[in-house]
Amino acid sequence: MYISKPPLQPLSAVKTIVMSYNTKSSVKASSKVPYFFPEQPILGKFIKFKDNTKSDTGRGQNNETLPPRLFQPFKIKNLTVPNRIAVSPMCLYSTSKIENYKPTNFHQIHYGALSLKGPGLIIVECTAVSPRGLITPNDLGLWSYEQAIEHRNKIVNFAHDCNSLIGIQLGYLDNLHVGEGRETKQDSTSFDDLLESIRKEWTDSAKLAIDVAKYDFIEIQGDHGHIFDSINNIDNNTPLKLASNDNAKFCLVLKIIDSIRSVIPKHVPLFYRMSASQKAPQKEKGAKDHEKLWDFDDTIEFAIKLAEHDVQVIDITGGFYNFNSQTEKINAKRMFMKRLRTSIFRKNLSMLVTGPENLETSQEAEQVLSPMREGKKKEGGEDDDKIQDFLIIGQPFLRNSSLVTEWADELNCIISQPVQYSWGFYPSNDYKEKK
After folding, report:
1. How far, in Å, CA of 388 to CA of 368, rounded?
2. Which residues contact 318 (CB under 8 A, 6 or more apart)?
3. How many CB atoms lie within 10 A of CB 279?
4. Which segments of the chain have a pLDDT < 70?
5. What residues contact residue 326 under an 8 Å CB cut-off, 6+ apart?
6. H or E stretch including 172?
7. Cα 50 from chain centroid?
8. For position 91, which CATH number holds?
9. What is the DSSP letter of 70?
10. How many domains does the chain have?
11. Are the C-beta atoms of 57 and 94 separated by less than 8 Å?
């Protein structure tokens, strides 16, 4: 026997049905979605110390009851981030041309699970702004309206249902690389057309990311062989090697950033990811070539220009090639991050500094984080322990999606959890009444 499907309810009727749940259910329904879903707190937010004890990481008499640095909220433009733990963009290789490079059910489950676990920010994996900018045949793309709708439906909507802040890393791999010792013959007109085409692809993708997919922020991938990385790399013999001309050193990147800014709301934050340096050990390159490579001073100069062009976060991902051991690299990175933050701070700019960290314990994380600052120099001078403003964590989240809760436990903290999971963390009615 054929059973007809009920007619689709208009959105107003759906909201009425959802609101009616609130009078019949033991939990309040969210008004954000057209199905029953408990209204969530701000996940990952510090509530109190366990047993009302004080912080084990208190820094002075006036700070003993403040949350540990990991769980101190901060702001990026209009975003209030509940803690200082962000999920790094990590390639997942889980789509294809058959799916038109759209998010799949895997992405829905993967990012949905992370959204329930309370990180302050989630950055979706590097997503190509055009077909020619794909890293591999199995990466996400965002150059069409249909793709943007799938990003919203598969990834963003549920993250927002959980009150999570989620952004996307956009990238364009430099597939124009022609190899060492070869030259690309291209007239100036076609080169100008190429740059204009790249600018438009970035701008269109960014607009789709914010206006259609509804991401909260955008990170621009400027490292790991992507097209902006090419302007700094002596080994790249493509027309995009603009760094040889000091006057054009930053022109492509800043032109695209300005173009993106012109099509997205002013309140939307922009992140930029890059290496601190391109310099490998000098013995591996001729001294003349080595001097041409992008170095720490260039990065600091560039970060200041990015801040002046309304970029809120600089994300330093590597570039410490002159150090042999992992310990030396870590120490060099942290010294550079301090120097970078100080340079930005002295220019009275409010750019935040971060970078991927492979940390395993909350104690390590606390050591890397810096005190909160509001963009103005505090009385009494600068703190001498500034390294990063927040953490970007990659591989540890793949091993343990509950990393935020684990670190909260290590620091003797209770943080907000999803309503559905709350009995696993605070089952006492007495506690719930106090909360």
Report:
1. 6
2. 223, 275, 276
3. 22
4. 1-25, 53-64, 174-191, 224-226, 228-249, 278-293, 319, 370-386, 427-435
5. none
6. none
7. 30
8. 3.20.20.70
9. G
10. 1
11. no
Q: How far is CA 311 from CA 120, 270, 308, in A?
A: 19, 5, 7
Inter-residue long-range contacts of 192-198, CB under 8 Å, 24+ positions, other chains counted: 194/239, 195/252, 198/172, 198/227, 198/252, 198/256
Residue 19 in domain: no
Helix (H, G, I), strand (E, B) or coil at 114: helix
Amino acid identity for residue 168 in this structure: I
- List Cα–Cα distances, 252 to 2, 97, 118, 202, in angstroms: 61, 29, 36, 11
Q: What are phi and psi of 357, to 5 degrees?
A: -135, 135
397 contacts: CB under 8 Å, gap ≥ 6: 87, 88, 114, 119, 403
* Helical residues (DSSP H) of 348-425, grouped into ranges: 362-368, 395-399, 403-410
For residue 82, which of 36, 46, 129 has the smallest C-alpha distance? 46
Cβ neighbours, 10 Å, residue 16:
11
319 three-state secondary structure: coil
pLDDT in tens, 139-153: 999 999 999 999 999
Q: Which domain holds residue 322?
A: 50-411
Cα–chain center distance at 213: 16
Q: 21: number of CA atoms within 13 Å, CB side? A: 18
Backbone phi and psi for residue 410, each to the nearest 5 degrees, phi listed first: -60, -30
Return the structure tokens found at 153.
Answer: 């439906």
Report residue 159 as tokens: 């993250």
pLDDT of residue 236: 45
Is 4 among the domain residues?
A: no
